[in-house]
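It is worth pausing here to work through a concrete case rather than discussing structure prediction in the abstract. The textbook approach is simple: state the sequence, then state the predicted structure, then interpret. We follow exactly that order.
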Amino acid sequence: MHQAIAIEFRREPRLNCDGDVTLAFESETVPSNNAVARMLDVSDTGFRAAHNCADLRPGIQVRFNHKFFVGLAKVVWTHPRAGRLESGFQIIHN
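Step two, the predicted structure:
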């Protein structure tokens, strides 16, 4: 039996974070106006959230609003995981 080994590429420690985060799109090329995602974790310079919005592609900028913080972020990556999508965001300004 083989055991999977997870390789950690994160540069900063992450803290678990919960709650909804509203994402308002800054780009006029995105058909959606906003999306609601579920916050998964945060770091000093970014966060990860789960959602079902295919418009959250790398490079898209969003205004985010969570119960603990607000600001502007850029989508760095989006991957399917466990029947939903997850995206990593880099905070540009908060």
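Step three, interpretation. The chain has a mean pLDDT of 87. Residues 40 and 49 are 5 Å apart (CA to CA).
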